[in-house]
Amino acid sequence: MGRGRVQLKRIENKINRQVTFSKRRTGLLKKAHEISVLCDADVALIVFSTRGKLFEYSTDSSMESILERYERCSYLEQQLVPNGSEHQESWSLEHPKLMARVEILQRNLRNYAGQELDPLSLKELQYLEQQIDTALKRIRSRKNQLIHESLNELRKKEKELQEQNNILEEQVKENEKSLIEQAQWEQRNLGQNTSSFMPPAVQPPLQPPMPPHPPLTTGDSFQIIGFPNGNENVEVQAPPSTMPSWMLRHVNDTI
Fold first, then answer.
1. Calpha distance 54→29 (Å, rounded)
2. What is the pLDDT of residues 147-177, one digit of tens each?
3. Is the pTM of this model over 0.70?
4. Which residue from 107, 133, 132, 131 is spatially nearest to 120, judged by alpha carbons?
5. Mean pLDDT per segment of 10 residues, for the chain of length 255 residues?
6. How far apart are CA 181 and CA 73, in angstroms?
7. Which of 96, 126, 132, 180 yields a CA-CA distance of 20 to 30 A from 194?
8. What is the pLDDT of residue 51?
């Protein structure tokens, strides 16, 4: 005897309803996986339980990319609708879709922060881990790039400072050399000025001039001895003078 057709209506028993939800959810996820593999289709499945618990499935491409494709297609269809009432109705239908997308994005952010990981399956956790690893690789790559740029900038500044230091050293050496040359030049000039401005030798004091001999008195005479002409004992008559006799004797002795 074959299985009878199940009547589609809400199951009143809470436990039976939870068991049926778990079984049908597993079968639905299995069918979604099968159609994605067999038909090479992008499948996205979102299921909320009566308690508000989220269950989802997506193919190798992320859920976000599938939803973006769906939104683009829905937007194009809305643009093709000429009727304004239908366009307004489509916007009213778009609101819950956007709210669902916001909820998914918020949940993904919480998952990236390590929160609410219990509802995720093994495949979802592996996909989340892969995304985090990819993000870490990008972050490390960017960090290494910034470190490399900072090191290059520091090396460039070090080279510029070294060049400035060399220039300052050359200027200091030139200043020292000019100071030494100026000191030597001043020393040479000081020696020349000292030799040219030496005080004259001290001359002995001049003897005061002898006072003029007093005039000889009339009748005085003196004797001159040893003339070259051989005249001896020549008696010369002195002119009249008032010189005393003792001075005449002194003059004679000196001559």
1. 13
2. 999 999 999 999 999 999 999 999 999 999 9
3. no
4. 107
5. 67 86 89 88 86 82 80 68 57 79 85 82 85 89 92 93 93 92 86 60 55 49 47 48 60 59
6. 90
7. 180
8. 81
Alpha carbon distance 150, 141 (integer Å): 14
Which pLDDT score is estimated for 102?
Answer: 87
Q: Where are the domains of the chain?
A: 14-120, 121-174
* pLDDT value, residue 216: 46
The C-alpha atoms of residue 57 and residue 120 are separated, in whole angstroms, by 10
CA distance 87 to 77: 10
